[in-house]
Amino acid sequence: MLKRVMKHLLNEGEIRKIDTEFYPDPVSSRGKDDFPARARGLIFNSIEKCTACEECVKVCPTQCIELEYQESEKSHRPWVSKFDIDFSQCIFCGFCVDVCDPNALVQTKEIQPAVLSPNDLKMSFGRGRR
Q1: Measured between alpha carbons, how far is 67 from 57 in angstroms, rounded to an integer?
Q2: Is the dihedral of CA 104, 110, 113, 114 positive or negative?
Q3: pTM for this structure?
Q4: Where are the domains of the chain?
Q5: pLDDT tens, 70-126?
Q6: Angstrom distance (rounded) from CA 54 to CA 106
Q7: Where do the H-state alpha helices sit in the chain?
């Protein structure tokens, strides 16, 4: 056993280069800009663009999106009062982003929502009641 360990540590009588990496390694640790173009992160809704078509709600396999809206008298676009995404249920499949015609939904490069309680994983994008 000792012979195997020494063979690993020594290379022809010289001490080998250390194989371990220090944490965080600047080369292997990824920042938001290092992700591939099609990386799937947290979903963000630009609520001003949202038309309340409910396609995202219909296509979501985990039903983690809640949408409520009111018809607007002033404009042809409905008022989105509630648009909640529960990231504790979301599987980041991207189906909702793909079917969003007005491109209101986008997947960001953020992948780790740090929260203390699972209830805090519910993000609200709605405008509130009129």
Answers
A1: 7
A2: negative
A3: 0.69
A4: 41-124
A5: 887 777 788 889 999 999 999 999 999 999 999 999 998 887 778 888 888 999 988
A6: 16
A7: 2-9, 55-59, 95-99
